[in-house]
Amino acid sequence: MPRTIVLVHGAWVTPASWQPFRQRIEAAGHVVHTPSWPLIEGLDARTINAAVPAGFGALALGEIVDHLAAFIAALPEQPVLIGHSVGGLLIQLLLDRGLGSAGVALNPVPIGGIVPGPAALRAIAPIVLRREGWRRPYAFGRRRFGALYATGAPEALVDAAYAGYVIPAPGRIFHQVAAWQGNRIDPARRRQPLLITGSDRDRLVSPYLSRAAYRIQRRSPAPTDFVLLPGRSHLLIAEPGWEAVADLALAWIDEALARHVRPVPAAPVPPAWVPVLAG
């Protein structure tokens, strides 16, 4: 059935990062929105990189969530929320506020309570150890973007992504994530289904972090699922094979929302979509 779906982008990218993904979901008959973060609405990557808006480096998670919550409140119905990276964290915070009918967190940056592993600490250290890094934007160079964000993607794709939608990220949000400030959720009050993914080639959000988020979120009374996507990097929404990720999200949404309206069985049966789409 047609649904309203909101795609929430992560750090270091603009909403343009969703373009092919969005088109595939729209082709399936859904209404799709790709709201931006505060201070960069209506701006493309070239404009932002030429002059990062004042205050963007100090943008906080709560400000972004408030901005997205206002956008969602203006929609005619509660949408399904799909977020990637920091966007995956943001949609969990929105679900925690009671917004959205379901959520898909694609390789999400950690919610509060998760201790990062060595790989995550190495990735975040240059950001949080800078002088006054909590109020300064942090930009990836082309080489570091390819090595950490788009690991293994074809060079032509990395070049196109870097030129087309890669921007600096607010330093404050990474300080908040590291200190568990503004990224805490209470799984006991979530009533919407949630899917969390991880992928084994992701050097920013390792499968360990995705599984840790799942272990916290499965305390919710609502359906909560986890899928490991092998052979994919952090750029799983745009690198080769992204179509399978979009199709997985759509199949899970249909199955989870149908499952959500029925009583939860005493011995849950694994969803039919897992062996088909996660392999």
UniProtKB/TrEMBL annotation:
<dbReference type="InterPro" id="IPR029058">
    <property type="entry name" value="AB_hydrolase_fold"/>
</dbReference>
<dbReference type="GO" id="GO:0016787">
    <property type="term" value="F:hydrolase activity"/>
</dbReference>
<dbReference type="InterPro" id="IPR000073">
    <property type="entry name" value="AB_hydrolase_1"/>
</dbReference>
<dbReference type="Pfam" id="PF12697">
    <property type="entry name" value="Abhydrolase_6"/>
</dbReference>
<keyword id="KW-0378">Hydrolase</keyword>
<feature type="domain" description="AB hydrolase-1">
    <location>
        <begin position="5"/>
        <end position="247"/>
    </location>
</feature>
<protein>
    <submittedName>
        <fullName>Alpha/beta hydrolase</fullName>
    </submittedName>
</protein>
